[in-house]
Amino acid sequence: MTEASEVSRPALMSEVQRLVVKIGSSALTTQCHKLDDEVVTQLVEDVVGLRSQGLEVAIVTSGAVAAGMGRMELDKRPDNIAQLQALAAIGQVLLMDVYKDKFHRHGLPIGQVLLTAEDILGDRHRYV
After folding, report:
1. What is the pLDDT of residues 58-110, one digit of tens each?
2. What residues pair up with 61 in beta bridges, in sequence order?
3. DSSP letters along 60-124, please?
4. HSE (side-chain half, CA atoms, 13 Å) at 34
5. pLDDT in tens, 2-55
6. By three-state DSSP, how is residue 19 classified?
7. Closest CA to 110 of 26, 35, 44, 52
């Protein structure tokens, strides 16, 4: 057993100031590609709880294409990049609207940063 693995979770978390939560499409959507209201509500409740403990929380979310598929009532994910971009555009609005409503109930504003490969590979300090 290594020294790092012997550290308890509470001890490790006591050092954490900022937490990044990654949420995938399959966690946010139902089999019909609709946003799962119960899952999003629980996620928001969890984030609110973390913030009340003094943590900064950033959500990295997928789900725009899946949400767009649900709105357009598509069962099969298209392979065409133009169609995927259109679905992402539709779904992104839906996704942010749901997050906005859920966080607003707790008096918390939201914002979004859309990143490109250059943002990740280049000057990443702009967003950190």
Report:
1. 999 999 999 999 999 999 999 999 999 999 999 999 999 999 999 999 999 99
2. 23
3. EE--HHHHHHHHTT-SS----HHHHHHHHHHHHHHHHHHHHHHHHTTT---------HHHHHS-G
4. 5
5. 555 677 878 877 888 999 999 999 999 998 889 999 999 999 999 999 999 999
6. strand
7. 44
Question: Which of 17, 20, 21, 70 has its CA nearest to residue 43?
Answer: 21
Residues making up the chain, counted from first to last: 128
Domain ranges of the chain: 19-108
Residues paired with residue 35 on neighbouring β-strands, in sequence order: 29
| Class of domain 19-108 (CATH, top level) | alpha beta
pTM, rounded to two decimals: 0.80
Alpha helices in 2-80 (DSSP H): 9-13, 25-28, 37-52, 64-71
What contacts 24+ positions apart, CB below 8 Å, involve 71-75? 74/33
